[in-house]
Amino acid sequence: MNQSLNRILKGYKTFRDKYVHGDTSIMQHLSQHGQKPEMMVVACCDSRVDPALILQCDPGDLFIVRNVANIVSPYEKDEMHYGTSAALEFGINFLKVNHLVLLGHSQCGGVNALMNGRILAKMTKKDL
Ligand SMILES: [Zn+2]
What we know:
The chain is of the alpha/beta class. Helix content is 43%, strand content 13%. 10% of the residues are buried. Bound molecules: zinc ion (ZN). Zinc ion binds at residues 44, 46, 69, 105, 108-110.
């Protein structure tokens, strides 16, 4: 097995030991009582911008939706499916979050691609 997979499996075991089987059992509490995060974060998929890591939050503290360049597309009244819009509606109307944070970051590859038409032109339809 390669090193990356071993590292991920070890991390998953640590996660389960700490959050699922640990004395505090945050996950058990959340599964029994549901999540009631006070803050929702829209963040980029970039690995450097993990909201829970940056804000040092525990499971249940944040309701997070991530996409490339943390783009929130405008509302469209049609039959298409919009993941970010659905997450926003769920977070605001169902979970009743008190705060909404759009977490941008420097040197975003998604924003760079958006602003640089040449990068997008290189992408084929298969890439999208
Ligand atoms: Zn980004």
